[in-house]
Design goal:
single chain; 237 residues; Helix Hairpins; rod-shaped; PspA_VIPP1; PspA/IM30 family protein
Length: 237
């Protein structure tokens, strides 16, 4: 059966090499699993048909056995009637021979059907066993496919991030940051210088105001004028 040939092929090492060359291993695997599910359904249906055929054949065998025994009993009954004079002996023997012939015919058919039953039952058991194995493997492969999908998503995301990082101009970015840093430092220094200049101007202005406000020189002049007018010497003997 194709399904069992496929099972054998899946186990071969060449499958791994083929998967590595696939453009999209996930889609290819999904397609393979869909085909296997279809073949599994076909195999299950085939198993059911073989099982049903085995049952029908076994029923036919039992029927032939029953008919064989029935004709054997008829042959005996006819001869018993001939024995007591109910049937002509010649006629009874003729009918008995016909009954015994039919008995042999049904018995031979029963033997042949019995061989068929054994063969069909063995085939159905093998098909059931292989179908169960395929079901178990399908569950395992579907689980692995889910894991593979998750790994593919992670690997694609990682690849995209790494690709973006690889495309960044690291040296250019660092140089730009250094230029911005130097520019900020220059601006900070310039602002500080302007602040110091403004502070110096403020100090000078304050000193000037202090001088302007300080009228001690005028007071001394006025005092000296009074002393001169009064004839008071600044430095008495």
């Amino acid at each position: 059966m194709n399904i069992f040939k496929r099972l054998f092929r899946i186990g071969q090492a060449e499958i791994h090499a083929a998967v590595e060359k696939m453009e999209d291993p996930v889609k290819m695997t999904e397609q393979g699993l869909r085909e296997l599910r279809k073949e599994l359904a076909d195999a299950t249906e085939a198993y059911a048909k073989v099982k049903a055929l085995a049952i029908r054949t076994e029923n036919d065998q039992l029927h032939c056995q029953k008919e064989s025994l029935n004709y054997a009993e008829k042959a005996i009954l006819i001869m018993q009637k001939a024995q007591v004079g109910q049937v002509d002996m010649g006629k009874a023997e003729e009918l008995a021979r016909e009954a015994l012939s039919l008995r042999r015919k049904f018995w031979a058919e029963s033997e042949e059907l019995g061989n068929q039953v054994v063969s069909l039952q063995q085939s159905s058991r093998e098909m059931l066993r292989n179908t169960e194995i395929l079901k178990e493997n399908m569950e395992k492969w579907e689980k692995e496919l889910r894991t593979l999908k998750a790994r593919v998503k992670v690997s694609k995301a990682t690849e995209q991030v790494n690709k973006q990082l690889a495309q960044l101009d690291t040296n250019g970015t660092i140089a730009m940051l250094e230029r911005m840093k130097n520019k900020v430092e220059d601006q900070e220094a310039l602002a500080k210088a302007y602040g110091e200049i403004a502070g110096n101007k403020s100090n000078l202005k304050d000193e000037l105001n202090d001088l302007v406000k300080d009228d001690s020189f005028s007071i001394e002049k006025d005092l000296q004028a009074i002393k001169e007018k009064l004839g008071i010497n600044q430095n008495p003997a």
